[in-house]
Amino acid sequence: MTSIALKNCWIIDLPVIRDPRGNLTSIEANNTVPFPISRTYYLYDVPAGTERGGHAHKTLQQVLIALSGSFDVIINDGQTEKKETLNRPYCGLYIGPMVWRELKNFSSGAVCLVIASKHYAEEDYIRNYNQFRANDGKN
Ligand code: TYD
Collapsing DSSP states into helix, strand and coil, what is residue 139? Predict the structure, then answer.
């Protein structure tokens, strides 16, 4: 785990089993990711110049991994904003509750795997930035 000085965010160094036949990385619930895994999804075929995200979650925990290609994640905990470029399939970005995130600058062929602690629930989203800022001190 590498701290990135932002509340509820850090980098997870995933294990790599190096092999001349090809490398292997595993992800284990409650171990390499610090929560029970309820859902995974992935973003792909993202057109150049398109942005994703633009929201925070009240309780959801997620880990984002660039399985292929690269993209930037702008994370903002209400106090500090940082840009993390994800471009390695053995590097996970943990994003906990109450962090505003925007995903941009997707490379051609980029695939963003998201591992999530809960099933999809629209009521867990905060999609309005002013509402996020009004609530960001409460978690
Ligand atoms: P959203 O989370 O806003 O996408 P992103 O943050 O990657 O830009 O979700 C986009 C749409 O997809 C929205 O209508 C909700 C739907 N959706 C699901 O049905 N299930 C899911 O697991 C996710 C993540 C989204």
Answer: coil
In the reported structure, the alpha carbon of residue 42 is separated from the centroid of ligand 1 by a whole-number distance in angstroms of: 10
**Residue among 41, 62, 128 whose CB has most ligand 1 atoms within 8 A, to mutate:** 41
Catalytic residue among 7, 52, 55, 88: 55
The residue assigned the tokens 């099933």 is 119
55: annotated active-site residue: yes
Q: How far is the CA of 25 from the centre of ligand 1 (A)?
A: 26
Give, in order, the Cα–Cα distances in Å from 73 to each of 36, 53, 76, 134. Answer: 23, 9, 10, 22
d(CA 51, CA 45): 12
Print pLDDT tens along the chain (139 aa). 788 788 999 999 999 999 999 999 999 999 999 999 999 999 999 999 999 999 999 999 999 999 999 999 999 999 999 999 999 999 999 999 999 999 999 999 999 999 999 999 999 999 999 999 998 766 5
Give this prediction's pTM: 0.96
